[in-house]
Prior knowledge:
With about 160 residues, this protein is an all-alpha fold. About 80% of the residues lie in helices and about 0% in strands.
Amino acid sequence: MSNEGPIARRRWIKVATIMGIIGAIAWLAKVCVILAIEGEQTDTGLPGLLFTVGFIGLAIGSTAIGASLAAGRRRRVTLLAASVSPLVVMLLFVAMQASLLTLLDGLEPHYVRDEIGVVIAAGLAVALGVRGLRIRAHPRRSDSLVGDDAARGNGIWS
Length: 158
């Protein structure tokens, strides 16, 4: 693999991570708007727009997870992992949201119950994204070498 492969992968992971953080912030802003208007709108207007922006940002951001997990593997494996990761992340979110709705049944107002999963998912995305950017900014030698790239000294975190 040429040296451009790991560099392009690192760039994509950084861009996707930033997009994920932006998406998570949009979801947090959506919840703030819903709380401010006391749940009058949850799916339309500004909350709907913020949901869409957040969803797209988080979907793009989740590709960083797949690309990171496939580091040091063939390009096809990395592309497959990055392509499948949005689906996996969204399925996990739907499962978490369904579980929370069941556990919090009866919590009022209803829009608070409906948005708790969004707050948890967005908070987790921001935390993981910021941590990922910090790791890339200050790699340790032991963290930077993964898979085949390790043999060549071309870790994705270096």
